[in-house]
Amino acid sequence: MRSKPARSANPKIGPANTTKAIDSPTVSPVANTISDGPPLTRPSANGGADSGSPQKTPAQIFVMDTDGSDVQRISTGKGATTCAYFLGGDERVLFASTHEGMPDCPKRPDYSQGYVWPIHASYEIYSSLPDGSDLKPLTRTDGYDAEATVSPDGKSIVFTSERDGDLELYRMDPDGGNVKRLTNSPGYDGGAFYSYDSKKIIYRGYHPTDVKELKEFKRLLSQHLVRPSIMEIFVMDADGKNIKQVTDNGAANFCPFFHPDGKRIIFASNLHDGGGHNFDLFMIGLDGEGLERITFNDSFDAFPMFSPDGKSLVFGSNRHNAKRGDTNIFIADWVEKPEGPKHPKKAPAEPGKKKG
């Protein structure tokens, strides 16, 4: 689950199974590190399963306070869920679920084909009150509908859909109406977020141009799978125009999120690990310049999101996990790199006088 840092006096930030309050660690671009601290969440021991077997506990949607307390499950407890986001501050919660089309716990994907993500065709997007009541569907189409997030002005929802035979980005109104397709490149476009002024969208994409690679993508998609080993970061206007590629490193770059200044993006990548399993957080400018590594942890750091004031960063990590594969939620103070001293230019010498 990904969730939006809330703006209310009693904010909610996302999923948890059990919780523990912490003193926030500090994120410092100066030192390029996040100081270690205990997580906000502790996954329960009954999650996880072997490839091909049903998961013991399907992923569900939870909300909690920013200190990890007051944890509440808001999804139905049936099927699989993903990609939660607050709608209208914290008035409603948006998420995708298979509970109507696939209420049983789904099987793990077949990893004999390599590392793949399941793209369940029965995923639809819903909204509910923060306590899980008043559950309403926003999509009703054949194929995958998920990965929905909301523009800060509350006027638009961007999401990924398979409704036209490919994994493309679309936008819709908060009530599910006025759907418009935004991307049109063969391949996968997803994980989109709006900028804080609601004028731009950042997202991950894989657009194979090689005939064999495109054929393999389509073969996997026919099995409701996608292989996320190569993804780049893209940015576009909120109406789908002016698409620009931000990264070009051939790694698995994903979960990009805007810094509130609108000029920088934080994202997760394994670019430093040669395509391995060690993901860390990086920051880069919208122009693709100024790449900076933020975390140096020997496991998995991902799903970063800034608070609207830019003072806090929430992210998921496998550090401090009870067992391999557990992902916990962390919140950290974001400390900007201080500017160096400014040296005023020497005043020009007065006419007729020598310098020095």
Short précis:
The protein is mainly beta. It has a domain at 26-74 and 110-118 and 178-334: Neuraminidase (6 Propeller).
Write the layout of secondary structure elements.
Layout: E1 26-28, E2 33-34, E3 62-63, E4 72-73, E5 81-87, E6 92-97, E7 117-118, E8 124-128, E9 136-137, E10 145-150, E11 157-161, E12 168-172, E13 180-181, E14 188-194, E15 200-206, H1 211-222, E16 225-226, E17 232-237, E18 244-245, E19 254-258, E20 264-269, E21 280-285, E22 292-293, E23 301-306, E24 312-317, E25 328-334
> Would you tell me the overall average pLDDT?
83
Helical residues, percent: under 10%
Number of helices: 1
Low-confidence parts: 1-35, 43-54
Radius of gyration: 21 Å
Distance between the termini: 64 Å
Could you give the order of strands across the largest sheet? 2-1-25-24-23
Roughly what fraction of the amino acids lie in strands? 25-35%
Q: Look at the structure and give the CATH class of the domain at 26-74 and 110-118 and 178-334.
A: Mainly Beta
> What structural category characterises the helix and strand content?
mainly beta
Number of strands: 25
Instruction: Tell the overall outline.
Output: globular
Q: Can you name the CATH architecture of the domain at 26-74 and 110-118 and 178-334?
A: 6 Propeller
The sequence of SSEs as H and E is EEEEEEEEEEEEEEEHEEEEEEEEEE
